[in-house]
Fold this protein.
Amino acid sequence: MYCQVYLRKGIVYVPTMGVMEKGFYRGIEPVAVVSAANTEALNQALLTTIGRGSPSVPMLKRRDWPPPVLLKHAGVKTWSAFESGASLWSVKRENGQYQIFGYKRHPTGRGSARDPDQTIIFPLGSTVDEVVERMTAILQNAAKR
């Protein structure tokens, strides 16, 4: 399971992450869009999206990829418009262990890179509820800054 979580202007965007044959992911519908301030709705959006997992989607050639699914939900026309002012985290479950990764602007200025200072690896046996609670706290703290 792999999930991306974006925070932009106090709004959290959680796309379903479809997995292609070679292990690459791309955002697909449904996309949860909730206010970072609404704890209950945010928890539910994260639980639902994580519970959905990463459905299989067709492998597309890069030129055949549709525009990023988040653009229409954020009301912007380009990925760079969405990305400016947006923060990214990912939630991953691998071998029964949950992990949260925060990202920062890549040193080249293009895209994002994992930020080791924002990495949380949960102990084996941690529940999805614990992960969602922590992710919600992270998002709400970030939205206040």
Remarks:
- The radius of gyration is 15 Å.
